[in-house]
Amino acid sequence: MEEIVSLCKRRGFVFQSSEIYGGFASCWDYGPLGAELKRNVKNAWWRAVVQERDDMVGLDSSILMHPKIWEASGHIATFNDPLVDCKTCKSRFRADHLDTTPCPQKSSKMAGQAEPCALTEARLFNLMFKTHVGPVDRDDDSNVAYLRPETAQGIFVNFPNVLTTSRKKLPFGIAQIGKAFRNEITPGNFTFRTREFEQMEIEYFCRPEDAPRLHEEWIQARYQWYLDLGMKRENLSLRPHEKDELAHYAQSAESTGTTDIEYQFPFMDKPAELEGIANRADFDLSQHAKFSGQKLTYFDQANNEHITPYVIEPSAGADRATLAFLVDAYHEEEVKEGDTRVVLKFHPQLAPVKVAILPLAKNKAPIVEVAQRLRGDLAKKMVAQYDDTAGIGKLYRRQDEIGTPYCVTVDFDTVEKDNAVTVRDRDTMQQERIALDQVKNYLLDKLDV
Q: Does residue 138 carry a pLDDT above 80?
């Protein structure tokens, strides 16, 4: 993992937030390549769950919403973690994470000389970030608002609007990608657990009797999505939640619970959650109907009845998925004795740069001219990068390390003989001569972009 974190900084995937000021704990910025990678993960998700399906629509709801929403959803009452303080080292921990988050006092090299760790009794700590709307803080908290801890509630409260405007029939879903905020007690492990993150969530509305079957279908569909994008099967697993860990919305007798898709990260002893697929039953629509006084039902014309739909919720973290795809793609390969290359074997849909255009001689105007013109033409269809800052061997290694699927070399023969270029495959390192006017179609076919 240290090598991956180093690569992320060196190549521009992830930077420490506010680094010139010493950093800001558990906050990260995505650099030029990281921004492309994360955007590609989100685009691949949207393509699979919205664009390619006829039963899904999209939404982009506000981060700030009426505070009563969080009362209705149960977040004010139940969105808590158990907090303990160490009176010796003054650190704070989640009580349920003490086995995986050692006290600094205990893990110190001077632990033998240190005072013993003394923990307070656990107390509940609400994870929502509180803010105020308007220029003045009021004593009665009437202008208190919250940064949303999940994107789901924006979907639920827009259910009647989407139903009216989209004219969808059950079953149908609403998908959303957006920022969420949780005041985590013990964030960490690079971008795995942060206080500001991005979610990719679906609320899939259905008849109650169809919910168990659709829950299982969504579990399998979401699991397959990671495999289709190249993630190794041996690193993925499915884990149904135990009864004592179910969220409040999945605890009803009508719910079939929650199943997590987990990934074996190299910095953890056991697999950790990538995505949860929950059967929320009718909890959310019923709660918002109760608190708002509005009708949040679906009229089934075939049966001439109003029903409160059940909801299946596949909820994934865009940041965790991005980290998992990055970790999974990392390879170190010996290409010949004593020569090792680092290569990120991203699926073409996810690769930040799709093709690199490399002139064999940067001081030869005809070669540079052709290379720049080719990059400009390809850039209309894909992310294409021009690089002439090193020898060809070093340029290949640089592109391998950022996961570029194809490199195109423009050489002397291109401009003097055959009007063709050399295309190199990242994974096999095989090279193929392709006519210049066929390069775009060749790459489009290979990349499926």
A: no
Whether residue 34 is predicted with pLDDT greater than 90 in this model: the reply is yes
Element (H, E) at 300: strand 298-300
> Are 49 and 18 found together in one domain?
yes
> Are residue 88 and residue 138 in the same domain, yes or no?
no
CA distance 219 to 314: 8
Residue 34 and residue 173 share a domain:
yes
Q: Does 383 share its domain with 274?
A: no
Neighbours of 114 (CB within 10 A): 15
Overall domain count for the chain? 3
Between the alpha carbon of residue 15 and those of residues 11, 288, 302, the distances in Å are 10, 40, 55
pTM (2 d.p.):
0.87
- Each residue of 306-356: pLDDT tens digit? 999 999 999 999 999 999 999 999 999 988 877 889 999 999 999 999 999
From start to end of 87-164, where are the E strands?
A: 92-94, 123-126, 129-132, 144-147
Residue 308's alpha-carbon distances to 170, 215, 289, 375, in angstroms, are 11, 17, 10, 54
Report if residue 344 sits inside a domain.
Answer: no
Same structural domain for residues 259 and 283? yes
Handedness of CA 285, 290, 294, 300 (dihedral sign): positive
Q: Which of 125-139, 276-290, 398-412 has the lowest mean pLDDT?
A: 125-139
Q: Answer for the pair 194, 75: CB distance below 8 angstroms, yes or no.
A: no
Is 46 domain-assigned?
yes
End-to-end C-alpha distance for the chain, whole angstroms:
30
Which tens digit of pLDDT belongs to each residue from 183-240?
Answer: 876 666 888 888 899 999 999 999 999 999 999 999 999 999 999 999 999 999 999 9
Token code pair at residue 160 = 């009647």
Beta-carbon neighbour count of residue 289 at 10 Å? 19
Task: Specify if 340 maps to a domain.
Answer: no
Judgement on whether residues 176 and 320 belong to the same structural domain of the protein: yes
Query: How many residues are there in the chain?
Result: 449
345 falls within a domain: no
Domain span including residue 121: 80-126
**Most confident of the following: 101-115, 132-146, 258-272:** 258-272
Q: What CATH number does residue 162 fall under?
A: 3.30.930.10
d(CA 203, CA 402): 35
Q: What is the DSSP letter of 415?
A: I
| Residues 375 and 404 sit within 8 Å (Cβ to Cβ) | no
